[in-house]
Amino acid sequence: MSEFIDFDQSVYPFPVKPALLSSDKKAFYRERIKSLLIEKNAVIVAHYYTDSEIQALAEETGGCVADSLEMARFGARHPASTLLVAGVRFMGETAKILSPEKNVLMPTLDAQCSLDIGCPEEEFSRFCDEHPDRTVVVYANTSAAVKARADWVVTSSIAVELIEHLDSLGEKIIWAPDRHLGRYVQKQTGADILCWQGACIVHDEFKTQSLEKMKALYPEAAVLVHPESPQAIVDLADAVGSTSQLIKAAQTLPNPSMIVATDKGIFYKMQQACPEKSLYIAPTAGEGATCRTCAHCPWMAMNGLQAIAEALEGNAEHHQIHVSEQLRKKALLPLNKMLDFAESLK
Ligand code: SF4
């Protein structure tokens, strides 16, 4: 038995895009960031969805480009005293929870996530209180306060395995916040899941009919889908998985081309993994609809070169992540459970 709870979705105001930089300015900021990283004993921890120039800079300077699970692991074990997290707010908070002794800086503290915004702590906590018999599993894309209310944190790379495990123990589950991932996991495991109705504004926009047409146009292409996408998109997939799993699938599937239903920032690492293959963005508009995000997260796009340089330059107030010690200790428990569980799967 599974149930899906209706939650009134907010309309998310999109942030202003960072100003485009000339190539001279870009070169200037790249060099400035490289010297600041050394000066401040800092390292860049970047998500796959940031712009390719940010991912390239992270790689070039010894940082990491990864999914949120690997970002958390990398930041915790790296010896740098400052982590520059290029991603969205919850990723910075997770880094701080795991590494309280480190400075955690972000290019902007306004880089949000529609899943995080759509799962406010007070409502969510009330919802959990109404179902005390259920184990609370929250996706990494949540605030520190929502994590602190949970029994488990999970990322998409281990979601099916974790829910299978909890289901085998006979546990009934509250899943939050992504409704599509919740439904996907429920279908894969048959677990008893009560699901919060959040959605990712990027993945929610992929369009079924347009994707069918694209498949007909590129019959040799495999369709790769992130499970934050609607069920009808997942149904058209040759491979479904987290960002790292999709990169692996692009590499291992025999098809010469891929239609990819996730944020197009992933193309930088995916193309590195299989340079000989053609990659196409899955359609986000069509049949009278227009896209708002066009397969690129507007908050991830806020992580520009200028903002990274400013974060490292020192006005900590506008860039530093703070999590109170009381909240940190609570949120650390379900996060550590996730990391231990991920380790046990290796
Ligand atoms: S791509 Fe979606 S899930 Fe990822 S940060 Fe942006 S809004 Fe959140």
TrEMBL record:
<keyword id="KW-0004">4Fe-4S</keyword>
<dbReference type="GO" id="GO:0051539">
    <property type="term" value="F:4 iron, 4 sulfur cluster binding"/>
</dbReference>
<keyword id="KW-0662">Pyridine nucleotide biosynthesis</keyword>
<dbReference type="GO" id="GO:0005829">
    <property type="term" value="C:cytosol"/>
</dbReference>
<feature type="binding site">
    <location>
        <position position="68"/>
    </location>
    <ligand>
        <name>iminosuccinate</name>
    </ligand>
</feature>
<comment type="similarity">
    <text>Belongs to the quinolinate synthase family. Type 1 subfamily.</text>
</comment>
<comment type="function">
    <text>Catalyzes the condensation of iminoaspartate with dihydroxyacetone phosphate to form quinolinate.</text>
</comment>
<feature type="binding site">
    <location>
        <position position="113"/>
    </location>
    <ligand>
        <name>[4Fe-4S] cluster</name>
    </ligand>
</feature>
<keyword id="KW-0479">Metal-binding</keyword>
<feature type="binding site">
    <location>
        <begin position="139"/>
        <end position="141"/>
    </location>
    <ligand>
        <name>iminosuccinate</name>
    </ligand>
</feature>
<keyword id="KW-0963">Cytoplasm</keyword>
<protein>
    <recommendedName>
        <fullName>Quinolinate synthase</fullName>
        <ecNumber>2.5.1.72</ecNumber>
    </recommendedName>
</protein>
<dbReference type="InterPro" id="IPR023513">
    <property type="entry name" value="Quinolinate_synth_A_type1"/>
</dbReference>
<feature type="binding site">
    <location>
        <position position="47"/>
    </location>
    <ligand>
        <name>iminosuccinate</name>
    </ligand>
</feature>
<feature type="binding site">
    <location>
        <position position="297"/>
    </location>
    <ligand>
        <name>[4Fe-4S] cluster</name>
    </ligand>
</feature>
<dbReference type="InterPro" id="IPR036094">
    <property type="entry name" value="NadA_sf"/>
</dbReference>
<comment type="pathway">
    <text>Cofactor biosynthesis; NAD(+) biosynthesis; quinolinate from iminoaspartate: step 1/1.</text>
</comment>
<dbReference type="Pfam" id="PF02445">
    <property type="entry name" value="NadA"/>
</dbReference>
<feature type="binding site">
    <location>
        <position position="243"/>
    </location>
    <ligand>
        <name>iminosuccinate</name>
    </ligand>
</feature>
<feature type="binding site">
    <location>
        <begin position="226"/>
        <end position="228"/>
    </location>
    <ligand>
        <name>iminosuccinate</name>
    </ligand>
</feature>
<dbReference type="GO" id="GO:0046872">
    <property type="term" value="F:metal ion binding"/>
</dbReference>
<feature type="binding site">
    <location>
        <position position="156"/>
    </location>
    <ligand>
        <name>iminosuccinate</name>
    </ligand>
</feature>
<keyword id="KW-0808">Transferase</keyword>
<dbReference type="GO" id="GO:0008987">
    <property type="term" value="F:quinolinate synthetase A activity"/>
</dbReference>
<dbReference type="InterPro" id="IPR003473">
    <property type="entry name" value="NadA"/>
</dbReference>
<keyword id="KW-0408">Iron</keyword>
<keyword id="KW-0411">Iron-sulfur</keyword>
<dbReference type="GO" id="GO:0034628">
    <property type="term" value="P:'de novo' NAD+ biosynthetic process from L-aspartate"/>
</dbReference>
<feature type="binding site">
    <location>
        <position position="200"/>
    </location>
    <ligand>
        <name>[4Fe-4S] cluster</name>
    </ligand>
</feature>
